[in-house]
Amino acid sequence: MRMTQFIHSSRKVSSHISASTSVSLKPLLVLICLLCLYFSAASADTLASENESANKIQQYSYEVVNVYPHDPAAFTQGLIFKDGHLYESTGLNGHSSLRKVELETGKVLQKIDIDRKFFAEGLASGNGQLFQLSWRARTGFVYNTETFALERTFKYPGQGWGLAFYKDQLIMSDGTSILRFLDPVDFKEIKKLAVSIDGKPLKRLNELEMVKGKIFANVWLTDRIAIISPESGRVDGIVNLAGLLDQYATVSKAEVLNGIAYDAADDRLFVTGKNWPKLFEIKIIADDLK
Hints:
By secondary structure, this protein is an alpha+beta fold. The chain has one helix at about 1-55, and strands spanning about 60-70, 75-80, 85-90, 95-100, 110-115, 120-125, 130-135, 140-145, 150-155, 165, 170-175, 180, 190-195, 195, 200, 205-210, 215-220, 225-230, 235-240, 255-265, 270-275, 280-285.
């Protein structure tokens, strides 16, 4: 009987101690849980903030450095700067041409007209040659840089829009979000690059130019230039050129912005548009990320 009472009493004491310990530990456990929740939330917020910052696309405005004359009859499709002069490809059937232009005056120093069955498009320089695309004819042209003598033609599938030369390869746009890398000798496709902005395809890529290792691309029907990584295809920045022509000319026949040329030797960036009476040297200015 005593043994039974002892056991019973022991169980009561043990239960009391456990209950007391449980009660005394509750505030501590609650505090620990709250701290865990706080630091977890803080870590999640930090990670989200870092991801948001990483996904932000740098926005650029512009400053006009110089303004030059440009032939308003030139339907600019491709533009490059080489050895102190501009080289320009102009479009429209019956009006397409290849030109060498004096920067300061806009004077056409050298010109050949393209067969009217071709609508000329992008232009690039490399390996001592000039490469020019046509729009729907799936035909490209290779010229001697000095004489403009046609050395050969080449074929490609789909449409031809913009063209640039990068690391011994041609980069071609076709109006989609895909850029194609071509061998400049046999013009076989080396690879395709999907261009995206905020994870979505950026379509209507047009005139192309390499600037400090990045692809600058006019986005057709907009006043924007996309700055694209040639490795990932990600849009790292957007240059907004809205209102550029309006500051210097009032014209009714001017078409969209199209034409980017870069002078690597003197770090000068030039832009113009289809039938624009002006060509601009600009400096792009990074806006603050907010």
